[in-house]
Amino acid sequence: MHLPSQPGALAGIRVLDLSRILGGPYCGQILGDHGADVLKVEPPGGDDTRTWGPPFRDGVASYYHGLNRNKRIQHLDLTTAEDRERLLALVAEADVLIENFKTGTMERWGIGQAELSQRFPRLVWCRVTGFGSDGPLGALPGYDAAVQAMTGIMSINGEADGGPLRVGLPVVDMVTGMNAALGVLMALQERERSGRGQLVEAALYDSGLALLHPHAANWFMDGRAPKRTGNAHPNIYPYDALRTGTDPVFVAVGNDRQFGAFCRVIGLPDLSADADYATAGARSANRNALKAVLEAQMAALDGRALVEDLMAAGVPAAPVLDVESALRHPHTAHRGMVVEMEGGWRGLGSPIKLDRTPASYRHVPLTPGTAFAPRD
């Protein structure tokens, strides 16, 4: 377990996390990692993701474990008046409330945002939704994969000659959680000036659309429908996975200088002066021919050694690793991106690094709790 040498950046902030599944809990975990006191309230049966396995530990899925550290958990049945009163006592002590109930649910219980903002004017209310609360799709339920489909993400993901493909991780949910956390921090900062909380809304649909760079920017400029390009970047080249004599390597050439260095490393020093490839625009327009030339030359090279040579020459390049290899990489350990806590719990560390008030890992998932810690 990693304990802080001093309080985290959000020490003293109390967060009531009523959310479940991914976007809301991920937001709560981000805040908890950086020192907030997070109480997660779940229904008697627990968050749905407790069943999203295998694998399981003591009957609780890894999926849940990956999103709910640095929280203390209690169960309330908010369909009952008694437990709603218990919740209100917690809200009275909270700075932030996170929820992702179906629109109208908390209002039917008499504990909606409009009611509670009057009673607790300093409360920052963070709502995570699928499509927002109103509009043509407002109040409809949203899941990551369905939103990937609706926002165009699947249409630009996959091989050029294949069909639309879901990104292999819940990218929309996770970015929505990040946007929610960012919005909470903005609202807390503004509260320092006004003394008032406000509603923060993070919708999966909005977050999915916001991920469309540079495809949306391209479409706004030329009106052409973006196409799938496999591993290749739609605007620059070579920015692609390329075959070698051994393992494939990913090369990310972003400018003419890097392309010149790349050509020298692979033994084609004159290629960067060829008019068809001398500029970024020319390389992108002639990418198919360029790829053929590059892979023919690289067929005699060892992929791992080539990555080292390219990186030494200032050309961004990487081996194509699987998840296990990435998690076992020495740099992963150096960056503190694998965390071990009591009871053998392991998970991903926080990617947000602060030098004076770093993230800390204080509560394993499923730590019980019934009240916020006293304020200093």
From TrEMBL:
InterPro entries: CoA-transferase_III_domain (IPR050483), CoA-Trfase_fam_III (IPR003673), CoA-Trfase_III_dom3_sf (IPR044855), CoA-Trfase_III_dom_1_sf (IPR023606). The keyword S-adenosyl-L-methionine does not apply. Keywords: Transferase. The keyword Transferase applies. SUPFAM superfamilies: CoA-transferase family III (CaiB/BaiF). It comes from the Bacteria. One of its GO terms (molecular function) is CoA-transferase activity. PANTHER family: SUCCINATE--HYDROXYMETHYLGLUTARATE COA-TRANSFERASE. This is Carnitine dehydratase. It comes from Pseudacidovorax intermedius.
